[in-house]
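Tutorial sheet, problem 5. The two components below are modelled jointly, 826 residues in total.
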Amino acid sequence: MSQPILIEENAVREAIMELAEYGRFGKTGVRRLVYTPEWSDAMAACRAWAEKAGLETRIDAVGNLWARLAGRVEGSAFVTGSHIDSQKSGGRYDGALGAIAGILSLAALKEQFGTPERSLEAVVLCEEEGSRFPTAGFWGSRAIVGKTTVEDTQTTLDFNGETIGAAMREVGLDPVRVGEAKRDDIAGFIELHIEQGPVLEDAGRPVAIVDAITGIAQFEVSLVGEQNHAGAFPMDLRRDPMAGFAEIASRVIDHAHRLGRPAVTTVGRCHVDPGGSAIIPRQVQFSIDARHPDPETRQRIYAVHEALIKEVADRRGLAAHIRKMIDLEPCLCDPLLLDALSRAAERHGIPTLTMPSGAGHDAQQMSLVCPTAMVFVRSAGGRSHTPEEFSTIADCTDGIRVVAEGLRILAYR
Amino acid sequence: MSQPILIEENAVREAIMELAEYGRFGKTGVRRLVYTPEWSDAMAACRAWAEKAGLETRIDAVGNLWARLAGRVEGSAFVTGSHIDSQKSGGRYDGALGAIAGILSLAALKEQFGTPERSLEAVVLCEEEGSRFPTAGFWGSRAIVGKTTVEDTQTTLDFNGETIGAAMREVGLDPVRVGEAKRDDIAGFIELHIEQGPVLEDAGRPVAIVDAITGIAQFEVSLVGEQNHAGAFPMDLRRDPMAGFAEIASRVIDHAHRLGRPAVTTVGRCHVDPGGSAIIPRQVQFSIDARHPDPETRQRIYAVHEALIKEVADRRGLAAHIRKMIDLEPCLCDPLLLDALSRAAERHGIPTLTMPSGAGHDAQQMSLVCPTAMVFVRSAGGRSHTPEEFSTIADCTDGIRVVAEGLRILAYR
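Model answer (C-alpha cells):
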C-alpha cells in the first residue's frame, strides 16, 4: 500500500472555525437547533464543501445531508458522519467534528486515491441532541433506520408547541415523506465524536477506538413517608423519605465505585416535597441513571438497585415506586470495522485506547441496520454540552486520519 | 385544700368549636392570619368570653388580648395563654387550645374560688406562626419581652409586600406604640399547647409537663463539585456533590438516631443544580435542622456535623459552605412552676409524662422576662399545621385542668 492518507491540520481548523460561525454566540458558544436558519446555513456550508470536492450530494426526507463517492462495484456503502445540531448552549465540537470528518475524509480519499472499489458516503445528521424537540433525540438517525413515522411529525413538539412537521415544512421538507429516509443499503457506519469524558486526557492519548456503546437505564424513584414536624417527632417514630433517599443514593453510587470502570451510576435529580427546613418531608423523588456496556452486568446492577430500594423502604416504613424511564441495550461495535480502524491508527502512528462510550450516539441507532464503530477524540477536561468544550486541532486531525484511513482500508483494494 | 377545680368538657368543646369557625375552611381546616377580619372576629370572641366571666380585658399595643383577675396583693401576675393565629392550612388546636385554656381557667378559678392572693392573667397572643408575615414569628410574645421595635413594623412584610405596621393600622393599632406592649411584671408564664409530636400517643398518656424547650440550629450547606456527563465520566474522576450530600445526610440523620431521644436531626430541603437525570450535578444545597434541649450536647452535635461535612467534602474534592440560619438556645422550664403543674396533675389523677418540647413556642420568648413552663396535650398521630390535627375533648380538658389547678396552687392560699 502507498503512503498513509494526508489530512491537513489547516483544513480541519478552517472547517471547524467556519461551521462554528453558524449559530455562534460569545467567543466559543454554538446554538444551532435543527430546522432554524443557522442550522440551514450550516447544512448549506457542508453541502458546498462536499460539492466542491466532487461528491454527489442530496438531502433526504428528514433533512440529513448525504455526500456520495460512488465505488466501482454495485452494492451497499460504507458511511461516516455525525450531527451538526447543537445543545442550546453548546460548543464547536460535539457532533460537528464528526460531520466535518466525514466530508474531509471522502474529499481526501477522492483526491488522493480516486474512485474506490466500494461506495462511500458522508452523512450530516439532524436533531441528535433533542435540543429543540426534546422527545426527538436521534431524529435523523432514527429516520434512517426506519423508526420515524408521519405521526411522529405531528405529535413531536418544541418548547413553543410547534410540531416538528411544521418546522420541517419551513425548511422545505415534506413531513409526509419521512419514511423515504430509510436506508437498507449501508455496509457499515463509522462515527467520529469528541469523547465527552476525561478518559483519553487521563490516559494521555489523542484518540480512542470505541468498541461498545454503553447500555443505559434511567429510573424515577419516589419514596413516600409521613410529613411531620422536625422538632416534635422523635427519630424512632419517623418515616422519613429523605433518610431513605440519602441511604439509597449513597449506596447505588458506592456500588458503581466498587464495580470500577466502565460502570457509572448517577443521581442527578432530586425533588423534596414539601421541602421546608423544619419539616420531615412527605416525599422524595429522584432519578438513578446507571450504565454498563455488558448486557449481563447491566441487568445485575439494576437488580441490586431494585433490591436495595425495596430493603431500605421496607426497613424505614416508606412506600417505594420505581418507574423505568429509559432502557437502551448496549451496542457492541463490529470487529471488522474495529480492526480497520486499529490498523489505520497504527499506520499513522497514532496511539489509541480501546474503550466503551458511556454516552449515547447516533451510531447506536445505526447499529439497528448495519455494523457500526466509533472513534473518539480527546476532550479537554472531558467537557461537552458547553461553550467550553475543546479539542486541539492536532487531536481532531488525528481522529479524522483514523477515520479516513479506516475507510480506505474498507473501500479500496 | 378543697375539691379539685372543675373544668367541664362541654365548655371546652364549645369554645374549641366556636373559635374554629373564625377562618374555617373545609370541615376541620382553619386559616386565621394575624390582623385579618377572621382573626379580629376570633379575638372579639375571646374578649367576650373573658368579659362574660368578669375578667378585666384590654388589647395591648401589638394586639395581644389580656384578661385579668386581680389578686389581693399588689405585684406581678401569673400569666397563661397561647396564640390564635394559625398556619395558612392549619387546624383547630395549634395555639387556639392554649388561648382557650387561659380564659376558661381564669373563669373557673374566679367562679369557684373567687379573688386570688396573686393576680392572674390570661393572654391571647398574635402572629406566633409567622404565617402572614414570614419574618415575624413570635410577634406578640416578642413585643411583650421588648424585642419589637417601630422599625420592625416598617420593614416586616407579608407575601403581598404590605408592612405589618399598615396591617396593624387596619385593625386600629398604632405601630408607633409597639414598645408599650412590653411587660416586666410577670411572675411566671404557663403555656398549654398540643404536642405536635407522637410521644404522648406512643406512651399512652393524655398530658405532658414540659421541662425544657429544645435548642435549635438550622444550617444551610452547599456542596460544589464539577458538572459533567453522567455517561462519559468515570466514577473515579468525578467530583459529585450528590454523592457527598447523600453521605452527609445519611450520617447526620443516623447520628441523631444513635443519640436517641430527645435528639432530632432533619434534612428537609435539598436543591440540585442543574438537576438533570443524565448530568452529574454541579451543586447541591440542603438544610440541616438539629435540636437538643441540653446546651452542651447540642454544641457537640453541631461540631460533629461540621467535622463530617468537612471530611466528606475534602475526600470527595468538593467545596463546602456552611451558613447558620437559626440558632436558638434551649430554654429550661422553672422548677417551681413545674412542681405546681405536677401536683395539679396528681390532684386530678391525670397521668403525665415529663418531656422536652422539640418545637419552638411563645414560652421560649417569655422566658427572657419570667419563669416559664408548658403543658402538652396528646395529638392524634402527632399531626399539626394541618386541618387533620386532632386532640380529644377529654385530653384537652385534662390539659386545661392541669393548668387551672396549677394556677390555683400558685395564686391562691
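Marking note: Chain B has a mean pLDDT of 96. Full credit if you identified this.
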